[in-house]
Amino acid sequence: MNPVQFINRTLLLASAPFIGMILFLLCSHLTVQLPDFHRLAATQFTIQKELQHAADQLDKAKTDAAQTRATIERFYQLYEQSAKDVVTMVQTADAASDKPTTIFDNRISTKLGAKASRQTNSANIDLKLYYLAESNYKGYALKVNMKSDSAMKMVLGKDKVGGSETTLDAVRRYGAVAGVNAGGFADDDRSGKRYPLSTTMLNGKYVYGFEPTFEDLAFIGLSSDRKLIGGKFSRQEDLDKLKPSFGATFVPVLLQNGKKQAIPSQWQTSPARAPRTVIGSFKNDQLLFLVTDGYDERGNSGATLAELQDKLVALGVKDAYNLDGGGSSSLIFDGQIINRPSDGKLRSLPTNFLFFK
Q1: CA 274 – CA 297 distance, rounded (Å)
Q2: Which of 51, 139, 331, 352 has the smallest CB count inside 10 Å?
Q3: Would you call the peptide bond into 35 cis, given omega within 30 degrees of 0 as the criterion?
Q4: pLDDT digits (tens, 9 = 90+) for 181-219
């Protein structure tokens, strides 16, 4: 075989598969599905339509959002204005509500003949201290306007029955702003302990039970709704009806419903004059404590109970009671001893009234 024949045969063998494929395609009836250009065009139109709809919805959402924002801003402006109006109304209401108190305080100052020398005002309590310079005695008036249940409390000496401490020590121990001595006491010579006299209550409970009134003693305290209560009680249920929160006992009752009560003869002369501590309440339930100075307990200095009755009536006090006096009279304000204790120093007592900011 010559080279030309060899090359021709090789080319024939190489092209044989392609020739067979061409023959197969020519002899068979295969069909090729071409794309439906009309449907494709319709689909593309639908997509464009949906895109346009979405764009329209987005534009509408933007418009709605802008309107919502404008509405919110408008409501916020109205809220700010309303808040300002409410603040103004509250301030006006506060001023209106304070006006009667201001008028009342001015009247008290006028009747006492002086403005308050010291005062403390908080959300809890309003205290005003006045100095008294009467023709027959000198003393002090503490007006108390309680604004909450925690404004005033009575405490036992060193927080235990039989314990005693000065009013100043009690004020310091409790962090009070002011303090006044409370009820009478009885000493136990054997133990050296000092016990509250007769019926005594703390936190709505009797310290050692109820004791019916004897020898003109009177219970003096505050009810659970911060009203001064007191008087003579022969039955516990009669006192319980007044819902006492705390209180102590001493003698005598000075005023009831603005009327003077008879002073027992013993207390008219024994002693005639003395350092005194009395508590009273006005018609608006504010309290008034009067504390008078005296050199001793022999009856030659201080005030008589009749003089204090006259003063209380002149000030418009409704109910009033005598608390322990003599060397027990104690008045503390802002950590200072205001009165002049007749013992030369403060006496240790089993009960004290405390006031808190």
Answers
A1: 6
A2: 51
A3: no
A4: 999 999 999 999 999 999 999 999 999 999 999 999 999
Q: What is the pLDDT of residues 260-309, one digit of tens each?
A: 999 999 999 999 999 999 999 999 999 999 999 999 999 999 999 999 99
Strands (E), the chain: 118-121, 125-133, 138-146, 152-156, 178-181, 185-188, 193-196, 201-202, 205-206, 218-223, 228-231, 244-250, 253-256, 259-260, 276-281, 287-292, 319-323, 331-333, 336-337, 351-355
Structure token pair of residue 139: 């003393």
Residues written for the chain: 357
Distance CA 215, CA 279 (A): 20
Mean per-residue pLDDT over the chain, rounded:
88
CA–CA gap between residue 77 and residue 236 (Å, rounded): 61
DSSP 8-state assignment for residue 227: -
Q: Are strands 259-260 and 125-133 parallel, antiparallel or unpaired?
A: unpaired
Which amino acid does the sequence have at 113? G
Domain ranges of the chain: 114-291+301-346+351-355
Q: What are phi and psi of 279, to 5 degrees?
A: -125, 140
Closest CA to 319 of 233, 234, 220: 220
CA-to-CA dists, residue 123 to 120, 148, 149, angstroms: 10, 8, 11
C-alpha distances in Å from residue 145, one per residue of 7, 99, 177: 131, 14, 14
Residue 12: exposed, middle, or buried by beta-carbon count in 10 A (0-12, 13-18, 19+)? exposed
- Type of residue at 34: L
Whole-number Å distance between alpha carbons of 331 and 131: 12
